[in-house]
Design a protein that fits this description.
By secondary structure, the protein is of the alpha/beta class. It contains twelve helices and twelve strands. α5 links the parallel β6 and β7.
Protein backbone atom coordinates (compact mmCIF):
# COMPACT_ATOMS: atom_id res chain seq x y z
CA UNK A 1 0.00 0.00 0.00
CA UNK A 2 1.25 3.49 -0.86
CA UNK A 3 1.74 5.89 2.05
CA UNK A 4 -1.29 8.12 2.68
CA UNK A 5 -0.04 11.67 2.18
CA UNK A 6 -1.39 14.36 4.53
CA UNK A 7 -1.44 18.15 4.35
CA UNK A 8 -2.17 19.75 7.74
CA UNK A 9 -3.59 23.28 7.67
CA UNK A 10 -3.40 24.75 11.17
CA UNK A 11 -0.84 23.54 13.70
CA UNK A 12 -2.17 25.11 16.89
CA UNK A 13 -3.23 23.13 19.95
CA UNK A 14 -5.48 20.78 17.98
CA UNK A 15 -3.01 20.31 15.12
CA UNK A 16 -0.17 19.53 17.54
CA UNK A 17 -2.37 17.09 19.46
CA UNK A 18 -3.26 15.39 16.18
CA UNK A 19 0.43 14.94 15.31
CA UNK A 20 1.10 13.66 18.83
CA UNK A 21 -1.73 11.10 18.71
CA UNK A 22 -0.82 10.00 15.20
CA UNK A 23 2.78 9.47 16.30
CA UNK A 24 1.58 7.13 19.06
CA UNK A 25 -0.08 4.64 16.73
CA UNK A 26 2.02 2.23 14.69
CA UNK A 27 1.27 3.55 11.21
CA UNK A 28 4.53 5.29 10.28
CA UNK A 29 4.80 3.41 7.02
CA UNK A 30 1.17 4.00 6.12
CA UNK A 31 0.68 7.72 6.85
CA UNK A 32 3.01 10.69 6.38
CA UNK A 33 2.94 14.49 6.14
CA UNK A 34 3.78 16.14 2.83
CA UNK A 35 3.10 19.61 4.21
CA UNK A 36 2.07 21.72 7.18
CA UNK A 37 0.73 25.27 7.09
CA UNK A 38 0.50 27.41 10.21
CA UNK A 39 0.23 31.16 10.75
CA UNK A 40 2.71 31.17 13.66
CA UNK A 41 4.99 28.21 12.96
CA UNK A 42 5.34 28.81 9.24
CA UNK A 43 4.88 26.28 6.46
CA UNK A 44 6.65 23.67 4.40
CA UNK A 45 5.93 21.03 1.80
CA UNK A 46 7.96 17.90 1.17
CA UNK A 47 8.42 15.71 -1.89
CA UNK A 48 8.28 12.59 0.33
CA UNK A 49 5.95 11.79 3.28
CA UNK A 50 7.44 12.55 6.71
CA UNK A 51 6.45 10.41 9.69
CA UNK A 52 4.38 11.94 12.49
CA UNK A 53 6.99 10.84 15.05
CA UNK A 54 9.68 12.90 13.35
CA UNK A 55 7.51 16.02 13.19
CA UNK A 56 6.29 15.63 16.77
CA UNK A 57 9.88 15.30 18.03
CA UNK A 58 10.76 18.51 16.18
CA UNK A 59 7.75 20.38 17.61
CA UNK A 60 8.94 19.53 21.12
CA UNK A 61 12.05 21.60 20.41
CA UNK A 62 10.01 24.79 20.29
CA UNK A 63 11.44 25.92 16.94
CA UNK A 64 9.44 27.03 13.90
CA UNK A 65 9.39 25.22 10.57
CA UNK A 66 12.05 27.65 9.32
CA UNK A 67 14.47 25.38 11.19
CA UNK A 68 12.96 22.03 10.24
CA UNK A 69 15.31 19.74 8.32
CA UNK A 70 13.71 16.32 7.68
CA UNK A 71 15.69 13.10 7.62
CA UNK A 72 14.84 12.53 3.96
CA UNK A 73 13.47 14.35 0.97
CA UNK A 74 13.47 17.97 -0.16
CA UNK A 75 11.29 20.66 1.32
CA UNK A 76 10.04 24.08 0.20
CA UNK A 77 9.18 26.77 2.75
CA UNK A 78 7.14 29.94 3.17
CA UNK A 79 4.69 29.35 0.33
CA UNK A 80 1.17 30.77 0.12
CA UNK A 81 -1.75 28.41 0.60
CA UNK A 82 -2.59 28.52 -3.11
CA UNK A 83 0.95 27.71 -4.19
CA UNK A 84 1.16 24.89 -1.63
CA UNK A 85 -2.04 23.32 -2.92
CA UNK A 86 -0.81 23.66 -6.50
CA UNK A 87 2.52 21.99 -5.75
CA UNK A 88 1.76 19.40 -3.06
CA UNK A 89 0.87 15.80 -3.82
CA UNK A 90 -1.68 14.97 -1.09
CA UNK A 91 -4.37 12.38 -0.47
CA UNK A 92 -6.04 14.01 2.56
CA UNK A 93 -6.15 17.59 3.83
CA UNK A 94 -6.61 18.03 7.58
CA UNK A 95 -8.12 21.47 8.21
CA UNK A 96 -7.66 22.58 11.83
CA UNK A 97 -7.67 26.37 11.72
CA UNK A 98 -9.58 28.60 14.13
CA UNK A 99 -13.33 28.93 13.56
CA UNK A 100 -14.54 32.16 11.97
CA UNK A 101 -18.02 32.63 13.44
CA UNK A 102 -18.93 35.31 10.89
CA UNK A 103 -18.73 33.40 7.61
CA UNK A 104 -16.50 30.32 8.01
CA UNK A 105 -13.71 31.71 5.82
CA UNK A 106 -10.96 31.18 4.80
CA UNK A 107 -11.46 27.52 5.75
CA UNK A 108 -14.34 27.09 3.27
CA UNK A 109 -12.07 28.22 0.43
CA UNK A 110 -9.27 25.94 1.66
CA UNK A 111 -11.60 22.94 1.56
CA UNK A 112 -12.93 23.77 -1.91
CA UNK A 113 -9.38 24.01 -3.26
CA UNK A 114 -8.49 20.66 -1.69
CA UNK A 115 -11.50 19.06 -3.39
CA UNK A 116 -10.43 20.63 -6.70
CA UNK A 117 -7.03 19.01 -6.16
CA UNK A 118 -8.72 15.62 -5.67
CA UNK A 119 -8.02 15.30 -1.93
CA UNK A 120 -10.31 14.03 0.79
CA UNK A 121 -10.93 16.54 3.59
CA UNK A 122 -11.23 16.29 7.36
CA UNK A 123 -12.04 19.44 9.33
CA UNK A 124 -12.21 20.12 13.05
CA UNK A 125 -13.40 23.63 12.24
CA UNK A 126 -17.09 24.38 12.85
CA UNK A 127 -17.14 27.23 10.33
CA UNK A 128 -17.14 25.32 7.02
CA UNK A 129 -19.74 22.79 8.23
CA UNK A 130 -21.92 25.44 9.89
CA UNK A 131 -21.88 27.92 7.00
CA UNK A 132 -21.42 25.76 3.88
CA UNK A 133 -22.16 22.10 4.64
CA UNK A 134 -24.65 21.48 1.86
CA UNK A 135 -22.53 23.04 -0.89
CA UNK A 136 -19.31 21.38 0.29
CA UNK A 137 -21.08 18.02 0.60
CA UNK A 138 -22.29 18.32 -2.98
CA UNK A 139 -18.79 19.10 -4.31
CA UNK A 140 -17.31 16.14 -2.40
CA UNK A 141 -20.00 13.80 -3.69
CA UNK A 142 -19.56 15.02 -7.27
CA UNK A 143 -15.83 14.31 -7.09
CA UNK A 144 -16.25 11.02 -5.16
CA UNK A 145 -14.30 12.38 -2.20
CA UNK A 146 -14.84 12.16 1.56
CA UNK A 147 -15.77 15.18 3.68
CA UNK A 148 -15.39 14.34 7.39
CA UNK A 149 -16.00 16.50 10.47
CA UNK A 150 -16.55 14.31 13.55
CA UNK A 151 -14.73 16.79 15.80
CA UNK A 152 -16.97 19.78 15.05
CA UNK A 153 -19.65 18.74 17.56
CA UNK A 154 -18.82 16.99 20.87
CA UNK A 155 -15.09 16.91 19.96
CA UNK A 156 -14.00 13.28 19.59
CA UNK A 157 -17.22 11.71 20.93
CA UNK A 158 -18.51 9.65 17.97
CA UNK A 159 -21.87 11.32 17.40
CA UNK A 160 -21.94 11.56 13.59
CA UNK A 161 -20.47 8.09 13.03
CA UNK A 162 -22.95 6.57 15.50
CA UNK A 163 -25.88 8.12 13.66
CA UNK A 164 -24.49 7.31 10.20
CA UNK A 165 -23.59 3.69 10.81
CA UNK A 166 -25.34 2.37 13.93
CA UNK A 167 -28.69 4.13 13.43
CA UNK A 168 -28.83 3.72 9.67
CA UNK A 169 -32.28 2.08 9.72
CA UNK A 170 -33.85 4.68 12.01
CA UNK A 171 -35.44 8.01 11.24
CA UNK A 172 -34.11 10.80 13.43
CA UNK A 173 -37.12 12.79 14.58
CA UNK A 174 -35.49 15.17 17.05
CA UNK A 175 -32.12 16.07 18.59
CA UNK A 176 -31.90 17.78 21.96
CA UNK A 177 -28.67 18.38 23.80
CA UNK A 178 -26.11 20.37 25.72
CA UNK A 179 -23.51 21.23 23.09
CA UNK A 180 -21.49 24.02 24.68
CA UNK A 181 -19.04 22.70 27.26
CA UNK A 182 -18.08 26.17 28.49
CA UNK A 183 -21.56 27.13 29.71
CA UNK A 184 -22.01 23.72 31.30
CA UNK A 185 -18.65 23.99 33.07
CA UNK A 186 -19.54 27.43 34.42
CA UNK A 187 -22.89 26.31 35.83
CA UNK A 188 -21.36 23.12 37.25
CA UNK A 189 -18.58 25.01 39.07
CA UNK A 190 -21.08 27.52 40.43
CA UNK A 191 -23.02 24.58 41.89
CA UNK A 192 -20.03 22.61 43.20
CA UNK A 193 -17.82 25.43 44.53
CA UNK A 194 -20.56 27.92 45.48
CA UNK A 195 -18.94 30.66 43.41
CA UNK A 196 -20.33 33.46 41.28
CA UNK A 197 -20.55 33.46 37.48
CA UNK A 198 -17.43 35.60 36.91
CA UNK A 199 -15.29 33.33 39.10
CA UNK A 200 -16.49 30.22 37.28
CA UNK A 201 -15.83 31.93 33.93
CA UNK A 202 -12.29 32.71 35.10
CA UNK A 203 -11.74 28.99 35.86
CA UNK A 204 -13.06 28.05 32.41
CA UNK A 205 -10.60 30.48 30.79
CA UNK A 206 -7.70 29.08 32.83
CA UNK A 207 -8.50 25.54 31.71
CA UNK A 208 -8.73 26.59 28.07
CA UNK A 209 -12.40 25.68 27.71
CA UNK A 210 -13.55 29.07 26.42
CA UNK A 211 -13.14 30.43 22.93
CA UNK A 212 -10.43 33.09 22.63
CA UNK A 213 -13.29 35.57 22.39
CA UNK A 214 -15.32 34.12 25.23
CA UNK A 215 -18.40 36.17 24.29
CA UNK A 216 -18.89 33.48 21.62
CA UNK A 217 -19.71 31.09 24.47
CA UNK A 218 -21.59 33.56 26.67
CA UNK A 219 -23.86 34.75 23.85
CA UNK A 220 -24.62 31.22 22.71
CA UNK A 221 -22.92 31.66 19.32
CA UNK A 222 -20.92 28.43 19.62
CA UNK A 223 -24.08 26.52 20.57
CA UNK A 224 -25.98 28.12 17.69
CA UNK A 225 -23.39 27.05 15.11
CA UNK A 226 -23.32 23.49 16.47
CA UNK A 227 -27.13 23.43 16.37
CA UNK A 228 -27.02 24.47 12.71
CA UNK A 229 -24.48 21.73 11.98
CA UNK A 230 -26.63 19.00 13.54
CA UNK A 231 -29.79 20.30 11.87
CA UNK A 232 -28.24 20.32 8.41
CA UNK A 233 -26.00 17.24 8.62
CA UNK A 234 -28.23 14.84 10.55
CA UNK A 235 -31.71 16.03 9.67
CA UNK A 236 -31.22 17.39 6.16
CA UNK A 237 -32.00 21.00 7.00
CA UNK A 238 -30.91 24.26 5.41
CA UNK A 239 -30.57 26.33 8.57
CA UNK A 240 -28.38 29.39 8.90
CA UNK A 241 -26.95 30.71 12.15
CA UNK A 242 -29.15 33.79 11.79
CA UNK A 243 -32.27 31.59 11.94
CA UNK A 244 -31.59 30.85 15.62
CA UNK A 245 -32.29 33.55 18.24
CA UNK A 246 -29.54 34.86 20.52
CA UNK A 247 -29.25 33.73 24.13
CA UNK A 248 -27.21 35.32 26.90
CA UNK A 249 -25.83 33.41 29.86
CA UNK A 250 -25.10 36.53 31.85
CA UNK A 251 -27.57 37.29 34.60
CA UNK A 252 -27.39 33.81 36.11
CA UNK A 253 -25.97 34.35 39.58
CA UNK A 254 -25.23 32.00 42.46
CA UNK A 255 -28.55 32.79 44.12
CA UNK A 256 -30.46 31.56 41.04
CA UNK A 257 -28.27 28.44 40.80
CA UNK A 258 -28.86 27.52 44.45
CA UNK A 259 -32.59 28.21 44.27
CA UNK A 260 -32.82 25.87 41.27
CA UNK A 261 -30.93 23.12 43.12
CA UNK A 262 -33.34 23.38 46.04
CA UNK A 263 -36.08 22.44 43.55
CA UNK A 264 -33.93 19.66 41.96
CA UNK A 265 -33.44 21.78 38.85
CA UNK A 266 -30.36 22.98 37.00
CA UNK A 267 -29.60 25.61 34.38
CA UNK A 268 -28.54 24.23 31.01
CA UNK A 269 -27.98 25.82 27.61
CA UNK A 270 -30.09 23.48 25.50
CA UNK A 271 -30.09 23.01 21.73
CA UNK A 272 -33.28 21.59 20.22
CA UNK A 273 -33.77 20.48 16.63
CA UNK A 274 -37.02 19.03 15.36
CA UNK A 275 -39.23 18.61 12.32
CA UNK A 276 -42.23 20.81 11.58
CA UNK A 277 -43.83 19.29 8.52
CA UNK A 278 -41.22 19.59 5.76
CA UNK A 279 -39.19 22.12 7.72
CA UNK A 280 -36.29 21.54 10.11
CA UNK A 281 -36.31 23.97 13.02
CA UNK A 282 -33.47 24.72 15.40
CA UNK A 283 -33.43 26.61 18.66
CA UNK A 284 -31.23 27.21 21.71
CA UNK A 285 -32.52 28.30 25.09
CA UNK A 286 -31.37 28.70 28.66
CA UNK A 287 -33.54 26.20 30.52
CA UNK A 288 -34.04 25.31 34.16
CA UNK A 289 -34.53 21.55 33.79
CA UNK A 290 -35.57 19.06 36.47
CA UNK A 291 -33.84 15.85 37.56
CA UNK A 292 -36.02 13.64 35.35
CA UNK A 293 -34.49 15.21 32.22
CA UNK A 294 -31.64 13.17 30.59
CA UNK A 295 -29.63 16.40 30.30
CA UNK A 296 -29.78 17.10 34.05
CA UNK A 297 -26.75 14.94 34.85
CA UNK A 298 -24.27 16.27 32.27
CA UNK A 299 -21.50 18.03 34.20
CA UNK A 300 -18.43 20.21 33.76
CA UNK A 301 -17.25 20.54 30.13
CA UNK A 302 -19.09 17.44 28.96
CA UNK A 303 -21.75 17.40 26.25
CA UNK A 304 -24.78 15.18 25.87
CA UNK A 305 -27.27 14.67 23.05
CA UNK A 306 -30.59 12.86 23.17
CA UNK A 307 -31.42 11.33 19.78
CA UNK A 308 -35.14 10.68 19.28
CA UNK A 309 -35.70 7.86 16.77
CA UNK A 310 -38.79 6.22 15.29
CA UNK A 311 -37.73 2.63 16.13
CA UNK A 312 -35.41 2.69 19.14
CA UNK A 313 -36.92 5.62 20.96
CA UNK A 314 -34.36 7.78 22.78
CA UNK A 315 -30.62 7.16 22.34
CA UNK A 316 -28.37 9.19 24.64
CA UNK A 317 -24.78 10.03 23.69
CA UNK A 318 -22.42 11.82 26.08
CA UNK A 319 -18.75 12.65 26.25
CA UNK A 320 -16.14 15.43 26.42
CA UNK A 321 -17.21 18.57 24.60
CA UNK A 322 -13.84 20.30 24.41
CA UNK A 323 -10.09 19.81 24.63
CA UNK A 324 -7.35 19.51 21.99
CA UNK A 325 -6.68 15.80 22.59
CA UNK A 326 -10.39 14.95 22.37
CA UNK A 327 -10.76 17.01 19.20
CA UNK A 328 -7.65 15.43 17.70
CA UNK A 329 -9.06 11.97 18.40
CA UNK A 330 -12.07 12.85 16.25
CA UNK A 331 -9.69 13.72 13.40
CA UNK A 332 -7.86 10.41 13.87
CA UNK A 333 -11.10 8.43 13.72
CA UNK A 334 -12.13 10.25 10.52
CA UNK A 335 -8.71 9.62 8.99
CA UNK A 336 -8.76 5.90 9.78
CA UNK A 337 -12.19 5.64 8.18
CA UNK A 338 -10.95 7.34 5.02
CA UNK A 339 -7.94 5.01 4.91
CA UNK A 340 -10.24 1.98 5.20
CA UNK A 341 -12.17 3.33 2.21
CA UNK A 342 -9.01 3.92 0.19
CA UNK A 343 -7.90 0.37 0.96
CA UNK A 344 -11.30 -0.99 -0.05
CA UNK A 345 -12.05 -2.40 3.40
Amino acid sequence: MDTIKLLLVGCGNVGKSFIKLLSSIEMDEEIGFVGIIDRKLGSFISNVPIAAKEIYKFLLSGYTFEDFVPSKGTILRDLTFDSIVDKVNMDVMIEATTTNYNDGEPAITYIKKAFEKGAHVITANKGPVGFAYNSLKDVAREKNLEFKFESTVMSGTPLFSLIKYSLKGCKIERLRGVLNGTSNFIFSKMEEDKIEFEDALKLAKEKGYTEKDYSIDLKGIDAKLKTVILANVVMGGWLKIGDIPDVSLEGIDLNKIEKGLEENRRYKLVSDIKKDGDKILGDISLELIDNTDPLYSVSLNYNKVVIYTDILGKIIVGGPGSGPDETAYGIISDLLEIIRGINGE
